[in-house]
Amino acid sequence: MNVCSWNLACRSARTLSIVISSKSARPGETCTSSSRIGENGITIRPTRPGGVLFPTPNRVGIEHRPAAADLKKQPGHFEIDTIFGKDQKSFLLTLVDNAVKLVIIRKLPNKRAESVVAAFRDIVANTFCDFKTLTADNGSEFAQHEQITKITGAPVYFARPYHPWERGLNEHTNGLIRRFYPKGTDFNQVTHRKIAALEHLLNTRGRKSLGYRSPNEVFLTHLQAA
């Protein structure tokens, strides 16, 4: 019988994280309710608490992202995420440019990676965005990131698990969206037109970080200068 050795680390006064430090377990063997051992003894954890175990193929971490994305001065570096609707049966894809704060929102029919890829095809066909990098969380909906890169021309980088501040602007933007569509909203009952209206509202209101100019104004300025 294989034995897993455990290092118990306190993440907070009320939360404990169990980290597997042994590679002796067999591939596929379950060592906790929220992790398992994959090939070569690599620990695979769920992408979200209580979520489905899902390793992202060819994942590239945020530590490899170009420094230009951190400066937040060059348009084209986007943070991306999904928002869950009622009973996790309806979804939105959200993108925000970390320099000009431009927001893009698309309804998704489901959370499958193929649906996210289709949404990016629509975005590229209907916007003037010049994508340079995309920074995602570790949700399984972004598993086909290589297809997203082919469509946008931008590499996808993944934030560290449980580090939402590495996509802080996207998290803030999702909070703004929640003011209009709070948790429990069934996005299947929200029309594409209403989602487009919200996107327009967010992109045409002044932002303090932009000198009280709107994302659309700043984005247009960059387009004209290109």
TrEMBL record:
It comes from the Bacteria. Gene3D superfamilies: Ribonuclease H-like superfamily/Ribonuclease H (3.30.420.10). InterPro entries: Integrase_cat-core, RNaseH-like_sf, RNaseH_sf, Transposase-Integrase, Transposase_IS30-like. SUPFAM superfamilies: Ribonuclease H-like. Signal peptide: none annotated. Coiled coil: none annotated. Residues 71-223 form the Integrase catalytic domain. This is IS30 family transposase. It comes from Symbiopectobacterium purcellii.
